[in-house]
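Whiteboard transcription, Tuesday session. T.W. wrote the structure tokens on the left side:
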């Protein structure tokens, strides 16, 4: 029987709570960390013996942990992750993993030196529609890929421009960095690296120093194109990811909740062309992506060589390089 993994969660807001709820039976919370009084206790009160702390440095000194989940604001992602790695923990850090690709250099070196498994929480890979889409892709049902068109947007809320995501120091960027990295990661997951990056950002509505919209045109060396738009002026929450091959098209819509029912449509081109053969899968039930991703992470720790869909630090660095390049392009105008 496998030994129980001892877990510390750093950052006990919405995502930290999701990670806690997704822990498998062979993982035990021994500590939770959050500077806001009461947040850490909201988790540790559910687990006898677990400790609530306010400083992650002290937490890793005090607790003997195997695994750390880091779900802080962007400015603390790398420092908290480094503390976890240096304490000997395997790590799952939430996207975008850092404010810039350069910030990840020290973390990557530390992970390699310590021999730790490090995953980045690009959780959208684990939504049921994307798991099915990946299966169809790996079966070559689409044929050679051509391009992807994707949109991801929400409408914010009163006071959104005064939250930490609107602070360029704490967040490192705006909507392109916040939700746009999901689209970049998903496009790379199917296409591979992008050699050409074009795009722009704008702040059209919100009174803040970071962008509320990001627009990308990305190309691979063999001519595949990703056309991506991330927005927090969408008003009605939207997720749409269309993947086009020479033989078929996949369309993922919705993420559940306010984004609408998660749905995958498979449009298969017929020899005579015309209207395609259409198959639709709908996933109205509870989102299980968090449980599946955490299970994959724990399994990878136990069996490092097995095939996983987990995003790595290299994946995060590639997505951040795209974002950073667009920011530099905007500054040079």
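and on the right, the sequence the group agreed on:
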């Amino acid at each position: 029987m496998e030994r129980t993994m001892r877990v510390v969660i750093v950052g006990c807001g919405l995502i930290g709570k999701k990670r806690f709820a997704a822990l498998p039976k062979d993982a035990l919370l021994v500590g939770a960390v959050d500077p806001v009084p009461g947040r850490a206790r909201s988790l540790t009160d559910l687990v006898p013996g677990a400790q609530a702390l306010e400083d992650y440095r002290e937490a890793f000194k005090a607790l003997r942990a195997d695994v750390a989940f880091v779900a802080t604001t962007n400015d603390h992602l790398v420092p908290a992750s480094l503390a976890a790695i240096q304490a000997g923990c395997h790590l799952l850090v939430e996207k975008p993993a850092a404010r810039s690709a350069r910030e990840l250099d020290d973390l990557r070196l530390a992970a390699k030196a310590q021999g730790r498994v490090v995953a980045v929480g690009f959780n959208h890979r684990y939504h049921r529609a994307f798991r099915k889409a990946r299966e169809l892709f790996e079966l070559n049902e689409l044929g050679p890929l051509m391009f992807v068109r994707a949109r991801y947007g929400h409408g914010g809320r009163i006071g959104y421009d005064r939250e930490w995501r609107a602070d360029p120091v704490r967040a490192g960027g705006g909507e392109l960095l916040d939700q746009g990295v999901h689209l970049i990661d998903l496009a790379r997951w199917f296409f591979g690296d992008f050699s050409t990056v074009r795009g722009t950002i704008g702040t059209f509505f919100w009174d803040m120093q970071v962008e509320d919209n990001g627009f990308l045109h990305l190309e691979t060396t063999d001519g595949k194109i990703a056309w991506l738009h991330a927005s927090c002026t969408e008003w009605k929450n939207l997720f749409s990811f269309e993947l086009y091959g020479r033989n078929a098209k996949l369309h993922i819509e919705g993420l559940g909740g306010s984004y609408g029912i998660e749905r995958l449509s498979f449009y298969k081109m017929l020899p005579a062309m015309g209207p395609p053969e259409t198959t639709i899968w709908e996933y109205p039930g509870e989102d299980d992506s968090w449980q599946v991703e955490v299970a994959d992470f724990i399994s990878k720790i136990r069996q490092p060589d097995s095939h996983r869909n987990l995003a790595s630090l290299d994946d995060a660095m590639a997505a951040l390089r795209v974002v950073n390049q667009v920011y530099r392009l905007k500054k040079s105008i």
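Someone added at the bottom: The chain has a mean pLDDT of 95.
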